[in-house]
Amino acid sequence: MNKRELIDFVCANLETTKTGAEETVNTVLNGIQHGITEDGAVSIAGFGTWNLRERAARTGRNPQTGATIQIAASKTVGFKPARAWKDELN
């Protein structure tokens, strides 16, 4: 499912316009991004938790040349699904 399909799903289930559904989806996604930026985590009961994760600097290899390169430290976001949802999938 991509963003357009998610908007169509919200539109159908809330019986709203596509514009209203798109605003709803964008607001939720922006809220998640804001929460991760501000607090480092967003937790939605029954769904899962997004966490800000830090990757340490490391040495890597350029696959085209084989030369070693230094990969800088970076931040990323990880997601861990809620236990109930994970059990439902399995």
Description:
The protein is an alpha+beta fold and 90 residues long. 46% of the residues lie in helices and 31% in strands. It contains three helices and five strands, in the order ααβββββα. The strands form two sheets. A three-stranded antiparallel β-sheet has the order 1-2-5. α1 packs across α2 (18-39). It is elongated, with a radius of gyration of 18 Å.
Q: Reading side by side through the largest sheet, how are the strands ordered?
A: 1-2-5
CATH homologous superfamily annotation: IHF-like DNA-binding proteins
CATH topology: HU Protein, Chain A
Q: Helices and strands: which structural class?
A: alpha+beta
SSE blueprint and pairings:
Blueprint: H1 3-14, H2 18-39, E1 41-44, E2 48-55, E3 58-61, E4 68-71, E5 74-81, H3 83-89
Antiparallel strand pairs: 1-2, 2-5, 3-4
